[in-house]
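U., I forgot to send this yesterday:
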Amino acid sequence: MEARSKFVVKFLPSLTDFAFLMPLVYLFGRMDGAKTLLGDCDTGWHIRTGEWIIANGWVPYRDVFSFTRPGAQWFAWEWLSDVLFAKLNALGGLMAMVLFGALLLSITYTALFMLVRRKSNPIVALAVTMVAAAASSIHWLARPHLFTLLFLVIFYAALEQVREGRTRVLGVPILAALPVIAILWTNLHAAFFVGVLMIWAYGGGEILRLVFSANAADRRPAWLQARRYFLSGFACLAASLVNPYTYHLHVHMAKYLNDPYNSQHIMEFLSLSFHDPTAIFLEVMLVMAVVAVVWYLRHGSFAEPLLMVVWAHGALLAARNIPIFAIVAAPPIAAVIQHALLRIPELNVAAWLRAVALKFNRVAEETGETDAIPRLHLVSILAMLLLAALVYAPNPPKRFRSEFDPKFYPAGALATLRSDPAGRIFTHDEWGDYLIYSLYPAHKVYVDGRSDFYGDDFEYKYIDVLNVKYGWEKTLSGFGVDTILMPPSAPLSGALKESSRWRVVYDDGIALVFRPALRTGSVQVSAANNGGGEGRDREVTKTLKSDQGITATKPKT
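Result:
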C-alpha cells in the first residue's frame, strides 16, 4: 500500500515544481508577460549581432550598425549569447526568445530554491525564494544578463558544497572545475567577475575567521582553505581571458563600470525608486539581510556577511544589482529563519507562540518528507508546453504576444522609413535598437543602446540634440541626418514642428517622422485617431520630467 502511495505521489507536483512555476506566474500573472521580457530592444541588436557572426564566421571588431561611427572599434562582448539568440530567433522568432527567457528564469530560481532548501525547511525555502524572485523581477529581460543569474546560483551551490566538505563532483575538484565554467560564463555575459567575487568572499571569510579565532588550532585549516578559494578565484580570472577579445574585455569592463555617465544617464545604473511596486520585496530582503548579518557575525561566520553587505550596497546603488543581492541573500536569510523557528519552542515566550512554532515545524518536517519522494515533474513540463501553445497561438492573449510593444516602439512608421533607403535617421537610442532589429542592414543608425561604444562625448552631444540645446542642428547636419523619428512628447518634436526647415511626413500618435521641408512637399501621412494630436503642438516644447526618461535614461545590458 505504501509503495502504491509513493507511486501516485510521483505524478503530483512538488515544491520544486512550485519554484519552477513561480517566475512564470510572476511574468504572466503579475507582470506584462512577453512584453516584460521584450521590454528592452537591446534584445534586437543582440539578435542581429548573432546573425552577423553566423554569416561571417567570426566575431566583429568594428562597428557594423551605425553611420555615425562606421568602422570604429567595437567588440561584441556577449558574442556567444548573441549567436544563441540569433539561432533561437531563426528557429521560432521572438516567441522562441520569450520561451527561452522564461525557461532560463524558471531554471535559475528552481536552482536557487534547491540551494536555499539545504539551509531550511522546504516551506521557509519556498517563501524566501518567492520574495527573492519578486525583488529580482525588476530586471527580467530577455538579454544575456540572465545567464549571469544562473551561473551565480551554480557558483554559490558549488562553494557551499566545498565549505561543507564535499570538495569533488565525479572525482573532479569543484574549485578546479569553476574556472572551466567561468570560460562559458565570460563568453555568454561579461559579468563573469561576479563569480570571481563570490569565490573571493568565501576566501575573505576564512581569512577573517583566522584573524578572529581564539583557537590556534583552527587557524591553519582556515588559511589553507582561504588559499584554495583565492587560487580558484585567480584561476577563474585567468580563464576569463579565453574569449575572442582576450584582455580587452577586462579593460572595457573596468572602464565601463567606472564611467560616471552610466550612473547619471542609464536607467538600470540608477538607484531604484522606492515607489516602484517591487521595492517592498527589496525592503523585506534588506531588513532580513541585516538580521542575518548580525546573526552570522555573532556565530563567527564571515563569508555570508561579506556577500550580503557588498551586494546590498550594490543593489542600493544600481537597480541592475538587485537580482544579484536577492540571490546572494536568500540562503543565509533562510538559515536564520530556520534557526529561529527551531529555537522558539525552547524560549521563555508566550505559550501560544511556542505552540505555533512547534506545529509549524512539525508540518514543515512532514512536508519535507513527502517532498523528498522523487517526482516526474509533469506539472512543470505541462506548464512549459501550455506556455508554448499560448505564445505560438494564432491570436495569443495580450500578455503572450511576443513583440516589441507597438504602443512604445515605432512599428507603424517602418514603412515610411523604408521608403527612403538612403535616409540617415536620427532617433533616441532605445528606438535606435529597434531600427537595428527592424531595418538593418538596409538602414544604419545614428545611435543605439551601446553607450559604451559611442563614448561620453558623443552621448552628451546626442542628449543635447534631444533636449534642443545650442548647436543641435549643426550636430545633425554634420552627420548628414535627413530623417528624424521622435515621440510626440519629445522636446525635439516641438522644435521641429515650429521649424520651417522640417515637416512632419508621418504621425500615428506614437511616432512622428520628420524630413526636410524642401524634399517632402505638402504630403503628410497620418495614422493617428481623430483628435489624437490635439494639444500636442503647445505641450511638446515644454521639457517636463516625463520627457527626461527619453532624453537622459535607458536600459543597458
